[in-house]
Amino acid sequence: MLILFDIDGTLLRSGGAGPRSMSLAMKELHPPRHPGDEVDHEQLDTAGWLDPLIWRAMLDQLGREVEEDGHEAFRRTYGSILAKIIEEERPVYALEGAGEAARWVHEHPTLESALLTGNYPETGRLKIEAAGLDPDHFRFGAWGSEAELRRGLPPLAIRRAAEELDLRVEPHQTVIVGDTPADIDCAHHNGCRVIAVATGRFTEEQLRPHGADVLLPDLSDLARFQEAVDTALAAGPQPTRS
After folding, report:
1. Helix (H, G, I), strand (E, B) or coil at 41
2. Which residues are CB-neighbours of 135 under 8 A, at least 6 positions away?
3. What's the rounded Cα separation, in Å, for the pair 8 and 105?
4. Does 54 have pLDDT greater than 90?
5. pLDDT, tens digit, for every residue of 61-108?
6. What pLDDT is recorded for position 62?
7. All structural domains of the chain
8. Angle formed by the axes of helices 222-234 and 98-107, to 10°?
9. 175 in helix, strand or coil?
10. What is the DSSP letter of 241?
11. Alpha-carbon distance 114 to 106, whole Å?
């Protein structure tokens, strides 16, 4: 069985360091042409988005053309700025119970733990380590730079489990743990099971209509999380949703 954890808002918080680093990277690569010609993240609803899509949205907000060479420059610059902010300000911290939940899955004899996230690999790993979480508790990652949409990440994770761990699981034997409607949607679209946690931007009331198999307020109660995993896996196959 495969348990896939989202990072931001599920395992940790970074005090806005990610969006701020992205904005600074855009400002460095695309100097403002006039007052106010800067990224306004409050106008971008990017919860659950993949980082390359956020880059495109920022370019669109600035009225700039998308050039793929520019994406690699943005990725490098963003990663460098984020690393500097994390080193100097130490804004990243693990959410209550996240480390214990990941450790329990890692040590479970029939479960494997991995990451499914919109982050680039290098920035996702940077956040995990900065939060004091053990990167060895996650066998691999399905990263934001590896799919066009978040819906493309669960099949990638299932294939990677087979290739790297010799673990062959069906979608309904895969549980996504995340904090946004996008996490729930990508699970439903691929026939996976999903545990939603209200530790990010969305409250339990806001997440409930999206139909997660289990909805938790947070990961602070390990026994409750263990029960949620059992409940999700016991639900069996479900049809994929468009």
Report:
1. helix
2. 125, 128, 129
3. 19
4. yes
5. 888 888 878 999 999 999 999 999 999 999 999 999 999 999 999 999
6. 85
7. 2-13+93-234 (3.40.50.1000), 17-89 (1.10.150)
8. 50
9. strand
10. -
11. 9
**Which residue is it, tokens 């806001």?**
206
DSSP-based three-state secondary structure for 112: strand
Number of neighbouring beta carbons within 10 Å of residue 87: 10
Burial class, 111, CB count within 10 angstroms (exposed 0-12 / middle 13-18 / buried 19+): middle
**Which residues, at least 6 apart from 227, have a Cβ–Cβ distance to it below 8 Å?**
none
Token pair belonging to 37: 């010609």
d(CA 81, CA 18): 9
Rounded CA separation 38/79 (Å): 19
Cβ-Cβ contacts under 8 Å for 209 (sequence gap 6 or more): none
What is the band of 242 on the pLDDT scale with cuts at 50, 70, 90? low
Q: What is the pLDDT of residues 209-225, one digit of tens each?
A: 999 999 999 999 999 99
More confident call, 184 vs 34: 184
pLDDT cut 90: percent of the chain above it: 79
Give the mean model confidence (pLDDT) for residues 17-40.
87
pLDDT score for 219:
97
Residue whose structure tokens are 């919109």: 118
Residue type at position 239: P
Q: Which amino acid is at 65?
A: E
Q: What are phi and psi of 189, to 5 degrees?
A: -60, -30
Residues with Cβ within 8 Å of 29's Cβ and at least 6 positions away in sequence, in order, are 70, 73, 74, 77
